[in-house]
Amino acid sequence: MERIQIKGRDEACPPVSSSRDLDIDEDVEDILSDSLGSMFGLQPINVGSPGSPFTYHYTGIQGSSNYPPTTITLRTPDTQAANWNLHASSIWVSALYLADHIDRLDLPAHPYFTADPTVSPLRILELGASAGLPGILTAKLFPSVSVTVSDYPDDQLIKALSGNVALNDVERNCRTIPHGWGSDVSELLDGGLGFDVILAADTLWNSEFHPLLVGSIAKALRPCPHARVHLVSGLHTGRYAIQSFLRRVQSAGLAVDSMAEYEAKGTTEREWDVEREGEDDGERRRWVVWTVLKWSSLNWSHDQGEQLQLCCRKSGEYDAR
């Protein structure tokens, strides 16, 4: 089905949260989505459409030199027809929420964060990046951090993602690598021990992909107590998909460090509850879940144990006992 672009429109999409402004060229799909939301009171779960321009304004944190107001310009990716089921041709509310609250990563407090160009930089990986908003914003805010943005090896998708990196002038510290979950991660690692922080937004919606995603995370995450995975997921696809993923990560030696539900367009925070009662689809659309994973202290393989020693000797924290 051919997508019809309406020319000459320059209308702003209704804001997903109060912390940013969005400038989007709308097409028929956007207009229909907004109309349905107005008619039925449903909160939008994504913005943009394939190939459309998208401008994100990060308002920053007043008085913080680490989080100044920043503008990110993107083009929403398209994919080959065979890969439309990836749903990579929109910018999802979870990616917007992660970008809005990028300060929760607290990168300047990480033990390996440094502005010294002679020291190996903190390494960040975004999996399932689509347009790459959280990863590119991180690279823009922290030029001393090394960021890798990655998504499925679809030529059109990767071309758009690479173009967004170039468009925001972060090529010096942000690279684009195609990666199919569950496949070899050597190109992602690029000779390193792994990534200190892994980001993923709205990647848990299909439980069939969970084994592959967990495999990539386990192979790409640096084997170190400081390493963290930040997963932000919209609740529009249900709670049990997220719970299924949590069960899966345990077998990979990972554990939940923290987990909470957040109102996507508000400030309310509440505990995660897989069996929360009294919510329909409209209510679920109002929330995202932010999950932080870390390595469990149990079940280290021999190779992981050796890398753990190498990793932590740098900070003097390794205890062989």
Automatic annotation (TrEMBL):
Gene Ontology cellular-component annotations: cytoplasm
Biased composition (Basic and acidic residues): 1-12
Positions of the UniProt region annotated as Disordered: 1-20
Sample GO molecular function, one term: S-adenosylmethionine-dependent methyltransferase activity
Pfam families recorded: Methyltransf_16 (PF10294)
Gene3D superfamilies (UniProt xref): Vaccinia Virus protein VP39
InterPro entries reported in the protein's UniProt record: Methyltransf_16 (IPR019410), SAM-dependent_MTases_sf (IPR029063)
The protein, known as: Nicotinamide N-methyltransferase
